[in-house]
């Protein structure tokens, strides 16, 4: 990424924000936080009330009781006994993996099975990225971890560094990192690239992280922070360019 004077950087940021924001508005896509995301995102049903705990231990603190018939999103299995989940209130925590409590089945249709692409590390990447929902701000050409202010590629670089994967800053570099993966073979943890300005002519200027289930999490000026979007329908689907696997 290049450095710019503050005034010019603000102009560039506003211009990019307007371009992406206009595209989203034109496509009629609803901007939402995780707890307001599409219902299909919360794909595992609670069969009997279960405690949502702070860590994968029966002795850890209880965040809340998740009642029967509520739905959660399973990020992955912490171990044979615990699932890492997000509830519809936006809480991240752990619940028992016993079939007594949910219809989750790793590899089956009852929930979000771990990816065959990046495996456990991919689950970590997605979990880490989601943990910054509502905390990160967007600023074009900025990489400021201490204040959680990033542009799109600075955020992906920040997240992957936490699992030991080194990425260069900038979509120009990240679009050639790792190996190519087709849209039909996307797996959790893949980098997904977009052309957000004007018609999609394949000029990459935006990047996000694939979460599985047709969803991508990305730092975007249209919401001044993190957003979860679909890559199977709507604006981001039509502006998809390519993907890279770096795990």
UniProtKB/TrEMBL annotation:
Residues covered by the NlpC/P60 domain: 119-247
Keywords of the record, alphabetical order, are:
Hydrolase, Protease, Signal, Thiol protease
Cleaved signal peptide residues:
1-27
One Gene Ontology BP term is: proteolysis
The protein's GO terms of the molecular function aspect are:
cysteine-type peptidase activity
Entries under Gene3D superfamilies matching the protein: endopeptidase domain like (from Nostoc punctiforme) (3.90.1720.10), SH3 Domains (2.30.30.40)
Q: Which domain of life is it from?
A: Bacteria
Known SUPFAM superfamilies for this protein?
Answer: Cysteine proteinases
Q: Which family does it belong to?
A: Belongs to the peptidase C40 family.
Protein name (database record):
C40 family peptidase
Organism, as annotated: Cohnella ginsengisoli
């Amino acid at each position: 990424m290049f450095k710019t004077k503050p005034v010019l950087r603000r102009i560039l940021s506003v211009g990019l924000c307007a371009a992406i924001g206009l595209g989203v508005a034109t496509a009629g896509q609803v901007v939402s936080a995780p707890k307001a995301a599409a219902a299909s995102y919360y794909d595992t049903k609670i069969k009997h009330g279960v405690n949502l705990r702070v860590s994968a231990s029966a002795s850890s603190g209880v965040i809340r009781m998740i009642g029967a018939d509520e739905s959660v999103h399973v990020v992955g299995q912490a171990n044979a006994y615990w699932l890492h989940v997000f509830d519809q209130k936006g809480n991240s925590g752990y619940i028992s993996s016993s079939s007594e409590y949910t219809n989750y089945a790793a590899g089956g249709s009852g929930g979000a099975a771990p990816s065959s692409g990046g495996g456990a590390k991919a689950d970590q990447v997605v979990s880490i990225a989601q943990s910054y929902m509502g905390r990160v701000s967007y600023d074009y050409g900025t990489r400021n971890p201490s204040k959680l202010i990033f542009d799109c590629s600075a955020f992906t670089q920040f997240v992957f560094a936490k699992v030991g994967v080194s990425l260069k800053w900038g979509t120009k570099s990240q679009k050639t990192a790792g190996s190519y993966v087709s849209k039909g073979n996307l797996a959790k943890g893949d980098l997904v690239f977009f052309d957000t300005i004007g018609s999609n002519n394949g000029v990459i200027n935006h990047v996000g992280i694939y979460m599985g289930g047709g969803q991508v999490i990305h730092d975007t000026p249209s919401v001044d922070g993190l957003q979860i979007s679909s890559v199977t329908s709507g604006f981001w689907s039509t502006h998809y360019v390519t993907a890279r696997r770096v795990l």
